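Is zinc ion placement plausible here? Inputs below.
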Amino acid sequence: MLGLRQLLRDYIWINVGNGMRTFAWFDKWDDICPIARMITPRMIANAGFSMTSKLAEVCEHGEWLWPDVWTERYPTLAQLQSVILDQTRQDRLEWKTSSGQSVEFNTATAWDAIRFRQNEVPWAKLLWFPQAIPRHSFLMWLLVQKKLKTQDIISRWNSSGNANFNLMCCSLCSSCPDSDDHLFFECSYSKEVWNGVKGKAGMADISEEWNSIFQYLLGISASDIAKHVITKIVVSASAYFVWEERNRRLYSSKKRKSSILVEVILSTVRLKLHSMRLKKSSSTVQVLQEWALPRGLLVADDDRG
Ligand SMILES: [Zn+2]
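Reply from A.M.:
I modeled the complex. Tokens:
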């Protein structure tokens, strides 16, 4: 936590009241603070202050009590806004955003201020959208970035020539080591799963090759119309449950048939759709029929959808 101090210091400000709780040299109560960046401990002691002096001890009626020679030596000090202490209230901590706005502190604001920023990747909205199922999005995030520990990657770690690495084979079809392309969804088992769900995803014409699926998804990733949101949910759920089945078979003898997995995927998506509110349009009515959902999920008229 202490290591974060430098990173956070510029955001944590004191809203000065009576100046009794604010450290004059170390706290951030003005743009040029902390003053300790300029003034040395020796100067502070020579002027009759201490390292723990509070703002109330160094300012009176809007005037600074430190020697004028400080300002001659550090002209920046002249830029300090004069402080009129308000005896009716205490100093309080506040969070200031990079744009200088005082806001109530919460972890989301803080994280947004200090995080490392990059341009948004083109597939961001494919994974993160309001109706997304977080654990499915996380799996997709690993998949899109080729971070899943598939057998083709693990076998590359085999610098020792261990023969066991050569015995690895896909737990779903047993025909070859698995890889991203194989599992999603070229493997004979995965392909049956994909063929079982793709119609419901509005992707009946899309082959089982990940590249075709991904390209299609990129085309609709930013869309928020119901059928495209459902497409994203179905593909993510399919990848998630195929990966789960693959792992389950590696560590136990339990196997589910591809038709069972299709049912698991579709019922998970259906359950998710139950929690959504769909804007009424001819295409959302069609969505409800396709998924056998009650019309109560429709909200006010809207031409979109
Ligand atoms: Zn396979």
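Short version: Residues 2-114 form one domain.
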